[in-house]
Design a protein that fits this description.
25% of the residues lie in helices and 8% in strands. It is an alpha+beta fold and 191 residues long.
Amino acid sequence: MVAAFASLAVVGFAAAMVAPTAVALADPPEQETPDSAYSVALEDTQNLTVTVEGAEIAPVERGSFEVYVTPKPTPTPTPTTASNSNSGGTAPAAPLFYTGGGAPADWMAAAGIAEADWGYVDYIVSRESGWNPNATNSSSGACGLVQALPCSKVPGNGYDPVDNLRWANGYAGKYGGWAGSYNFWINNHWW
């Protein structure tokens, strides 16, 4: 215990008076110092002892560990049926939405539509799907750029813009070509 004393000199007295000025204090608790990069490295260093015969390094004993990675099992493919009906209790396959790129002119050219008919096609497709290859009518199930109904009419994939336009190019023949299809659409707002 530490006690602090102070001496007090009183004027007019022959002797000085001494009195305690504080209470005894306990040793302050040790404060933990956070580990620093230096202190951690210092603990992990090897001891080097240098003698007349030479230097000697004490080996560091470290724990060992082992890593085992469990391999992911290869998923077993689920067989799918190419059925358009829901017979036999199997659900129909999900549509294969279009994820590729391209532009309307590229799609029309690839579908074999004459450049002179592109204006008619643009008018109809802009109103049917807004040139969205993945457009689907939720009530009827019509799909693709020209809203083929049913979607299964389109050879290939009804959501592929080239397949959809190729099918529509043949379908326009029902109206005498794209100009007739355009006139029918103007009068009926469908084709």
